[in-house]
Structures are given as structure tokens and as C-alpha cells.
Amino acid sequence: MVLQVPLDFLMLLLAGISAYYLRFASFVVLTRPVIFKLTLLSFLNIASLVALAWLLIFAISGLYSINPNRKLSRELTRVVLACSTGLGAIALYVMFFLQQFDSRFLVAVGFVFAIVYVGLERILMRGIKGLLYRFGIGLRRVVVIGKEEIAKNVVAVLRKRKELGYQVVAEFLSFNSGVAKELDKINIDEFIFVNPRANEEETLAAIDYCDEHHKVFKYSADLFSTYSINMSVSALAGVPIMELGKTPLEGWGRVSKRLFDIVMSLLVIIITSPIMLVVTIIILIETGRPVIYKNERVGIRGLKFLTYKFRSMYQKDSTGVQFGNEGIKNEEKEKKLIKTNSIKEGPVYKIANDPRVTSFGRFIRRWSLDELPQFFNVLAGDMSIVGPRPHQPREVDKYEKHHKKVLTLKPGITGMSQISGRSDLSFEDEVKLDVFYIEKWSLFQDLIIFIKTPFVVLKKRGAL
């Protein structure tokens, strides 16, 4: 998918260049003389902007979908429709802004070339991908569950037709705890459940396993189709197969969220840089170095990373490997403090009236200024601006199965739970809100949460 974007851009530029040279071909000029002045360089500048706009139309049309089983005929149909939409957009532009040169030939012929070049590029890419699959390159490792003839047919076809892009690494008659243990020993990408007679308990157990281990879950359409929130339908060996999707944050959704994170985090860092400088100076004066506190947290798919915060505790009480053996000892002291002062139940703690916090530390915690350095975590790609809060490994170790759904995307500086109660919420309520956010994600929702966060902080509700 990533390679598809620049290739489409090049094909669209090539279509424009081909139309340009055809317009100035002698047999065309004899039929219709050129009455405008437009150098190739000037035309390329215009064509590049048009190509970028068309890429956006391609994305909206689903041409960059990550569905590997989409039929070529459907993809080529989308190419024609997307190019037609782009042609309509250009026609409207020409009509409303009245170009100074006669560009109708360039537009019409460029449209035809675009369909031909992009279509041929897609066909060629399919051929190259199929060839790589035949040599065993890039195959998705799958396990097939099912005891009916339909499951055997799926396995037989996948093993025979490598160009489909699958490698069956294991097959089981049904899913149970023993199969789950076997799957833990092998590395798989997808889980295909083809068992029409499976009961709902078995199917849900298989889905939970895929959720917990971050595997793609596909199932035959005759199981139950009401569970999926965002499903995509394809076919394997003539069997309708649905892919269970728990969030629209796939493909271009994930790309747009990342672009939002980069732009907004840069904006916040620039705007708040004077504040961060003042906070840095005050911390140095009050308690010295280090100014930044690095704390290990668990992110997407269970990957660990270091979050950055302004240090709000005395050095002698700070925890973590950043402070060496003293930091490890302080973690033991902290566990005792959690038992006596924590105001939250469940795996996550929140210490009220923490005696380890400095005077200025209380101030920056109250107004969430200690979290400003986390925008650098966002730029680095470890965090997102909006998402579930990142927790420590010792907290995540106490998660129940349904809690681990929050690990399916990057943790955030703010989120649905942060604007809905902050520390006042129970951990279970936080998880429910985070799962709701994951399932109903939209870029507009991210923007609303981002805008609402400062107002929630100003109310000083639930901040510790």
C-alpha cells in the first residue's frame, strides 16, 4: 500500500506529460492549432498539484485499502470511477475559474491516459506480487480452524494457489485452550475460522484469542455476521470470508491519525515552548537535575517505551532505572504507599496526597504541565495525542483479558476517559470509554477531544 501511492503519483504525472506531448504533435496541431503558451515546466507544476488532489480522491475511493483479497476487476472499476471523479473536479474548476488557455484537450486526453497508466500499473503490481508469493516471499502465515469439508477445501486451495498470498502453518478441528497453547508456539499473522457448526462460545473464545495476541481474525460468512463492527468481505476457495475489524483505524485511518499527531504536536511544542522553558528553570532552581523524568510504559501491541514528563518528585524518591539502584529501591517503597494512599481500585493506582511530590511538582501536576514533554513522545511515534493512557508494565501485568483491547493502538496524552472524568473514573469505566473510542474512531473525534482537553484541565477536575 505504501509503494502504491508514489507509483500512482508517477503514473498520473506520466499521463499528463503524454497528453502534453500529444497536444503538440504535428498531426494534432494541424487539426487544431495551439493558441496558448504553456511550457512543459509550467504544465508539470499544474499537473503535480492535480495529481496530489487525485491521490486524495483515490484514497477516498478505497484504492489504498489494505484488503489483500480484493478482485482485480473491482480495483480497475474503482480506478475508472476515481479518475472520472477527478475529471469532474477539474471540469468544475475550469468552469468557475475560466483558464487563460484552451486546456480541454489536455484534460480529456490526460484523463484517458490516467486510466490506462494507473490500470496497467495496478495489473503489473498484482503480477509482481503474485510472482513473489509463488517464491514464498511476503506470504501471510495463517492457521485454519474447522472440521467440515469446507475447511479442507480452503486449506487445499491456499496450499495450491500461493499467488493468493497465504501460507497455512497449522490446521485444527476446533478451537480450545489446548489449541491456544499450540498457537503460542508458532508465529502467525491471520486466523481463519471456517467451522459452520461452531457454537458461539467457541467462536468468541477464538476472537478473544486474536484480540489478545493482535492477530487478524477471519471467519466464514455463515457463522454469525452481526458481531463485526467494521467488517470487510472477500472470498477464499469460493467461500465468503469476513474479516473482523474492531476499529476504522486501519490503512488510511492510521495514516491520517499519524499526520494529525505530527502537525498538532509540533504546533503545541512551538506554542508551549516558553512555558516549558520556565518550568525547566524552576525545577532546576527548586531541586536541580534531572528535569525530565523517564518512566517505562507499555504501548501498542505490548511494546515498551519511555515516556517523558517534567520531574515532579524529589530525586531521592524518584523511581525507575533512570535513578539506578536507588530508583529500584524506591519502587518497593512506592508499593507500600500504594496500599495506604491509592484512591483507585484495579491494576492502575493513583496516590492521593503523595509526600514525594515537590511544591512546584504539585502545581505542574494540577495543571498537567508535567505532561507537556510527552508531545515529543508523539513526534517520536511512541504515543498519539489521543488514545488510552499508557500504563506501567507492573500495571499491565494485572490486566484482565478484556483490558488488553486498549493495547491495539498507540497510547495517548489525552483521550475519551481524560475528558470524561480523569481520576474520578474507575479503571473499568476508563477501559469502556477507551474501547468505545477505538471502535468509533474518527479524525473529527480526535480533534474534538484535543480541543476539549485544555478546558477540562482548567476546571481542575480529578487532577493529582
3D architecture notes:
This protein has 464 residues and is α/β, with parallel strands linked by helices. The chain has three domains: 4-134, no CATH class; 140-244, 3-Layer(aba) Sandwich (Rossmann fold), CATH 3.40.50; 252-458, no CATH class. It has helices spanning 4-23, 26-31, 40-60, 72-97, 104-134, 149-160, 177-184, 200-213, 252-287, 324-341, 359-366, 374-380, 393-396, 427-439, 443-458; strands spanning 140-145, 166-172, 190-193, 216-220, 232-236, 239-244, 292-298, 304-310, 384-386, 412-414. The strands form three sheets. Strands 2-1-3-4-6-5 form a six-stranded mixed beta sheet. Helix 1 (4-23) packs across helix 3, helix 3 packs across helix 4 and helix 4 packs antiparallel against helix 5. The longest helix is centred in the middle third of the chain and has 36 residues, at 252-287.
